[in-house]
Amino acid sequence: xxxxxxxxxxxxxxxxxxxxxxxxxxxxxxxxxxxxxxxxxxxxxxxxxxxxxxxxxxxxxxxxxxxxxxxxxxxxxxxxxxxxxxxxxxxxxxxxxxxxxxxxxxxxxxxxxxxxxxxxxxxxxxxxxxxxxxxxxxxxxxxxxxxxxxxxxxxxxxxxxxxxxxxxxxxxxxxxxxxxxxxxxxxxxxxxxxxxxxxxxxxxxxxxxxxxxxxxxxxxxxxxxxxxxxxxxxxxxxxxxxxxxxxxxxxxxxxxxxxxxxxxxxxxxxxxxxxxxxxxxxxxxxxxxxxxxxxxxxxxxxxxxxxx
Length: 308
Hints:
The chain is 42% helix and 10% strand. It is mostly helical.
């Protein structure tokens, strides 16, 4: 077994494995409990690490440079460690982006799988005139009523069930989480500043005028945060313009995240300033070129264990 990773197939109890970090400190890896919200892709290997320096070292150990050439290892960082803000700016940027990219790709893959399934079910519906139970379930997930006229419901469903550009996911996560260093990210795995009024699913939002009810949503892991963010853009009433523009870009097979960012002014009270900040993050870090990156098995350079 490789000393740096605990494979999903291991049959030992849930324990922490401690191994020397390549750069500094000790890196702690733990297997995570199986959760339906996070196990979206076979082979995605969950891990935890105790320090920001250790996270950078671990990612280096997977031949994972930035920007990636064609692929990224299928690693799932469960929580950001403390100390991201203490890293040198260029190391912090690369560490954050490398950690989040596999999660963004995974969520998009899942959404595109649902989109493909919906297309097949809609084709079946055209012949039978009836919505199968599975299609009704998927339509409900995307808040589309099955009682609407078929043509209208089909158009709405296909506009809502679609990928969000990886570059936009990474840019908003960096902006909203302070590159993985915000208290909401560390305490609640909340990368995107998502709020909730349910006291059972969030933590108090500091500075809120209604601290007893306005809460920041808490997630079991980072992947769940990315999934909720993508779903929010896909169904939220504030992002109709985003979905319309995305639909118009669909034909060329690649979304223009810089132009899509212009539709997200309502995401922040900063409005136009927020839009410019997102666009600068995308262009300044070359994120618009990541749409061709695919996931590969997470096999470390010195690995002797089996691929996940």
